[in-house]
Write a structure and sequence with these properties.
Largest sheet: 9 strands, mixed
Shape: globular
Number of strands: 13
Strand order of the largest sheet: 4-3-2-6-5-1-11-12-13
Order of helices and strands: EHHEEHEHHHEEEEHHHEEEEE
Bound molecules: aspartic acid
């Protein structure tokens, strides 16, 4: 059975000129590292669930992406993190929203999924759950980076002078996610985010909403989204793509394009990675760039930030 893995690091990719060559190289190296972490699990017969978790953990720990360390700051200058994971074999899922102290929210989401019930925990209850599970707990400042502090300062200025609409995708948001198919043919998806810069405290996006920013169902597809979460929730994007495949008989590519067209009609930034029942991968986006990557069946790591796709050796 073909194994397959795809990741995204958000559609809030910076314009090329805003980072040095060394910074771009590091961001790409972290995408490749994420793919290798997930692929190593799939290659030795591990589960799609474990693979997407491992891939997302690497991006949560990287300062380049808006999840875990490097997450966006809310209007109070704090980080509130959302994450979820779903097992396409059983439709089991786990999710946390607005948590503040869990180093790797996706790992806590998996622990909650394993627990079975409840599916979604919010805020302090999510943090307490992770602590009780013995997971890594950190101070909220662990997630802060210089870039995110600058993003918040510039969004506050934009708010004051009324130029919010002119903010770049990168200033605003981002997310990380992974989708996988394992040797047994099972699918899984995971997503983790800091939301968007200057979001109101308590705001929850699509990433922890099963069926919106994250969805996996064997025989159909696994999907992880990035972009203006409010619209992913309205269109139940992950579930919509699975339904277009399951009920309307669309191909993965056509279903993903249909969902993207509905989002794009609202002039919002959006992107996603999805994997089909047979391991086919799509990674559409409508912004200037999207951090993304996948491994082809021959084991080659592919990574991209803008239009060009770079091959970064064997997984
Ligand atoms: N989807 C995320 C959210 O709305 C943000 C993003 O991916 O840019 O929280």
């Amino acid at each position: 059975m073909t194994i397959a893995l795809a990741i995204h690091g958000g559609c809030g990719t910076l314009p090329k000129s805003e980072m040095t060559d060394a910074e771009w190289a590091e961001a790409k190296a972290h995408l490749a590292k994420s793919l290798r972490a997930g692929w190593a699990i799939l290659a030795k017969g591990g589960s799609a669930v474990d693979a997407v978790e491992a891939a997302v953990v690497v991006m949560e720990d990287s300062a380049h992406f808006n999840a875990g360390h490097g997450a966006a700051l809310n209007a109070d200058g704090e980080h509130e993190l959302d994450a979820s994971i779903m097992d396409g074999a059983t439709l089991a899922a786990g999710a946390l929203c607005a948590v503040k102290r869990i180093r790797n929210p996706v790992t806590a989401a998996k622990a909650l999924m394993r627990r079975g019930d409840p599916l979604l925990l919010t805020g302090p209850a999510g943090d307490a759950f992770a602590q009780a599970e013995g997971l890594d707990i950190v101070a909220n400042e662990h997630f802060s980076t210089e870039r995110r502090r600058k993003n918040l300062a510039s969004m506050k200025i934009r708010e004051l002078v009324g130029t919010m609409a002119g903010a770049s995708e990168a200033e605003k948001h981002g997310t990380v996610g992974a989708v996988a198919r394992d040797q047994a043919g099972h699918l899984a998806a995971a997503t983790s985010t800091g939301g968007y810069t200057n979001k109101p405290p308590g705001r929850v996006g699509d990433s922890p909403i099963i069926g919106a920013g994250t969805y996996a169902r064997d025989g159909r597809c696994a999907v992880s989204g990035t972009g203006k979460g409010e619209y992913f929730i309205r269109y139940c994007v992950g579930h919509e793509i699975a339904s277009l495949i399951g009920y309307a008989g669309l191909s993965l590519q056509d279903a993903a394009e249909r969902a993207m067209a509905e989002l794009t009609a609202h002039k919002i930034g959006a992107g996603l990675v999805a994997i089909g029942a047979d391991g086919e991968i799509v990674a559409p986006y409508n912004t200037g760039g999207m951090y993304r990557g996948w491994v082809t069946p021959d084991g080659l790591v592919h990574v991209a930030t803008h239009a060009d796709v770079e091959v970064m050796g064997q997984a």
